[in-house]
Fold this sequence. Notes:
Blueprint: H1 2-36, H2 43-46, H3 55-68, H4 75-90
Helix pairs in contact: 1-4, 3-4
Amino acid sequence: MKRALLAISLLLTMPLVWANGQVLHDAACMQCHAALMNGDANAIYTRTERRVTNLKRLDSQVEGCALAADVAWLPEEHQQVVDYLAKTFYQF
């Protein structure tokens, strides 16, 4: 019974974590990405020559972008952004 309740609570909180990742991403990343991609910020994730091909590389790229943008995310916020991008753009 405890496992079932834990599983249910995790499933219910996942959309909130994902939504927070999107909010953090949009606030910190969209302006720079739009400038790099001629106004289409999301094109950075869908271009054919994209750099990110796996979850480890995505984590590293988010870390590098956060440094470049001078963003001081907490580790859990960083992970929320990675999770949002992985689910939304990369499907891994």
